[in-house]
């Protein structure tokens, strides 16, 4: 698992800054969201995030290096892998749930036609998979 030395961080070095070094890039958290929702294959993760394939490939490598996800082969020809959250990745679910609640309250208008009433915390969905 990758860690970040606080002495390397600019400004006020703290664990929040260290965490953002590892998972603070937008696509990183959306990759974690997709895997938490059950998307384990590359194409499904790309579709769920809407990000370019190269960005997701880079995020998956970085998250694996950080110990947030694991990658294991499920097909040898052509080689394909599936992705799962590690314990460290599972520990991000409450962070995603907090962002979901904040986003619903402050970032998305209550009358937005694309706002879906079915958004539920990931911790609630975890047991239903």
Key features of this structure:
single chain, 129 residues, mainly alpha, Arc Repressor Mutant, subunit A, two-stranded antiparallel ribbon, 2 strands
Strand content: 5-15%
CATH C-level label: Mainly Alpha
- Give unreliable regions as ranges: none
Mean pLDDT: 90
| CATH superfamily annotation | Winged helix-like DNA-binding domain superfamily/Winged helix DNA-binding domain
Strands in their spatial order, largest beta sheet = 1-2
Task: Give a verbal description of the structure.
The protein is mostly helical and 129 residues long. It has a single domain, classed as Arc Repressor Mutant, subunit A (Orthogonal Bundle). Helix content is 50%, strand content 12%. It is built from 7 helices and 2 strands; from the N terminus they run ααααββααα. Strands 1-2 form a two-stranded antiparallel sheet. β1 and β2 form a beta hairpin. α2 crosses α3. The protein is globular. It starts with 14 loop residues before the first helix and ends with a helix. 13% of the residues are buried.
